[in-house]
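Figure 2 data, in text form.
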Amino acid sequence: MVAAMDFTLFNVVLGSALLGLVAGALGSFAFLNRQSLLGDALAHAALPGVCLAFLLGIALDIPPKQPLLLLGGALLTAWIGTLAILAITRTTRLKQDAALGIVLSVFFGAGIVLLTAIQHNVGAQQSGLDSFLFGQAASLLPSDVWVIGILGGIVLTVLGYFFQTFRIVVFDPACAATLGLPVRRYEILLTTLIVVAVVVGLQTVGVVLMAAMLVTPAAAARQWTDRLGHMVMLAGALGAVAGATGAWASSLEARLPTGPLIVLAATALMLFSLLMSPRRGLFWAAMRRAANRRRIAVENLLKDLWRLGERDGRFASPRAVSDVMAVRAASMSALGQAQSSGLVRRNGTLVQLSERGLQHAARIVRNHRIWELYLSRRLDLADDHLHRDAEDMEHALDDDVIEQIDEALGRPGTDPHGRPIPRGVPGSTVEAAL
């Protein structure tokens, strides 16, 4: 009994993983091409095909719930839906989102009508047919896994063979046309592959949830890479992990639906990616913003200490640090960081800019005053707006940009207010009494 249960679980996990692999890889193209609803529309368009194939099986006196027969019907109507979407967008003024909405609602409505008619007229033979709405991965048989594996393998093989062509056709159709590629044919071929992936997933996650299996792994993979090839492979891997994890989790407790758990697993991977990916993750973005705020606070402190010395005409001013605090509320917290970074030194009751701190302060003041002069000369900005705008830019401009601006302005000696633009570092240090 345990062995049988383990074998059943193995089939479910393997079939779900294969589905996630295929859906994730193909979903990358739909996601990047802003066709995230394409999978949803095609999944709904497949429902009437399932019903028609079921009725055909009864008419021909063959097992009406033969998997290949039902998948063949789903593939036919989903592909018709694909052609309908392409025809609407090419022959009318309707946008693609409108075409997707029309095909989704019309085909799904027809499918619900057929499904209701079958339930009332055919009777017990239709038992389980409505599982195509939400999927029934727990009932996957070895034959179903073979079908998913064979069709998925064909889809991935074609995708790999035409990968470079698909990349040009999808993201630069004008270039593809210039190269003499039949753009429309390749668009239909790529969409057909997506149709096959959708149809393969109907029995596992169903019509309603299939769109999530196309979009969610691709959205998660996009957070980690900017290269299409890497994204396709990563999305396939994440889809496979989500499929296997959801299928395994559904076995831990009786009556837990496998399809929704697969989608929840994919969603968890996407949320993790949104939070923790190094370049786009919200967590690391928040950490970078916090570090940037701390850096700006330190630079503002150094600039204020510079101005204290400059105001007295020398760089040894016994000004109270509270004067600096009145200018910058964040200066006190920045003081400890500046000291630990070696930019300032504490000498009894005095705060002293180090040589390195003087160099850093001179650079910030120079950035500020050169940018003020640029805004005044080139953009004719009013004098009362110069300081505010320069306050933001002084921390963002790197040395190369400032050097180019300085050279374009003729290397001026003073800013619009007549204050000197630092060209070097004074010989003594700035001191402020605590």
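Caption note: Confidence is low (pLDDT under 50) at residues 1-5, 316-323, 325-329.
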